[in-house]
Fold this sequence. Notes:
The chain is built from eleven helices and 21 strands. By secondary structure, it is of the alpha+beta class. It has two domains: 3-37 and 105-209, PDZ domain (Pdz3 Domain); 212-347 and 357-407, 2-enoyl-CoA Hydratase, Chain A, domain 1 (Alpha-Beta Complex). Strands 1, 2, 5, 6, 7, 8, 9 and 10 form an eight-stranded antiparallel β-sheet that branches. It has a six-stranded mixed β-sheet with strand order 12-13-14-17-18-21, sandwiched between helices. Strands 3, 15, 16, 19 and 20 form a five-stranded antiparallel β-sheet that branches. The chain is globular, with a radius of gyration of 23 Å. The two termini are 42 Å apart.
Amino acid sequence: MEQELNLVGRSNKKSKNLILKRVSLAIVAVLVFGSGWLVGAGKVGPNSASNLASIISSDGSEYIPSEELDEILSKLKDNFDGDVKAEDIRNGLKSGLVSAVGDTYTEYLTAQENSDFNSDLNGKFEGIGAELGKEGNFIIIISPIKGTPADKAGIRPQDIIIEIDGEPSTDISVSEAVKKIRGEKGTTVTLTIIRDGEQIIVPIVRETIDIPSVEWRTENGVGIIAIGRFGTDTTGLVEKAAKEMTDSGVKKVVLDMRGNPGGLLDEAVGVSGVWLPKGSTVLEEKRGGETIKTFTTSKNPIFKDVKTVILINKGSASASEIVAGALKDNGAATLIGETSYGKGSVQQIIELSGGGALKVTIARWFTPKGKNIDKEGIEPDTKVELTSDDIKASRDPQIQEALNFLAK
């Protein structure tokens, strides 16, 4: 249940407006459950550098003398009112080194965070079920996952989280926010959010979240396929659904990717191949403006010449945007709904010694027609919004518009 309260302490309407002004809609897509990244595979051995003194600037003229770090550590130990733990110092150095490149998607994952990330790709964890992003100093809700505690508690896209269990959440990383929000099933986490200039406190009881990769059904001769995430089983499940539908004579399909935060790049390519002819371009990866790889479909399509509508919204990100962009640019589908999230970069997970990992942006991706949608998203062919009143009344004008379009 939501409660509307006044800002506490020294906060006031002016400070609320300042927060809102500092937060743009061009937020970055990272998830509470961690599956909103386009992930590659890779391994790297132990760091060959003996210490941070080997870190040099681009022209080789500057470096970080180890004695400077030693001095900082010594002064910290002598003056800090609290424990200085060696493991925390090591993780802090690693995180700081990676964050220095200034890319929100590039980050160091501790061994536990890396383990959580790998588990999250399977879509099962304990928490509230919401995508998290960050813009500037602020943690933002990208989208609550349908049917999860966050969704049931009334959490909405673009809610700004300013406190987690009464502690400020500004100036923390998405990974830190994830740690604070996750927890044992049955326990409660309280989020203090800013929405439309007002502060709202939302208590949420954590549950076991099991997000299905793919669900499908047929209604009045129309196949409806909903993809919640792009995990290792997604292409296979979509192919299974497509075969069942074609065997039963389905000629019209709705592909629902609303609130889909993304996942594995190869799965996005595989799903696109269910609609696109073999050899069709799905996306291009570019680094420094140069194309480094072109991804194409490798199978004959199951849904050949099947009239298709794709549903997207502002919670549709990364891998779901790749599929939407590929089918739209290749003339295989019509898009209905709202402008998608706008994540146009590709990350790779590089395993490190000790169990940690480096998640690093390796390229930007472009649709078959050469568009990078980063921070812009993909515009639907027909814009249909889903309002708060629609949600309260259990109406879905977006899927209704899709069915109307397919009936023509």
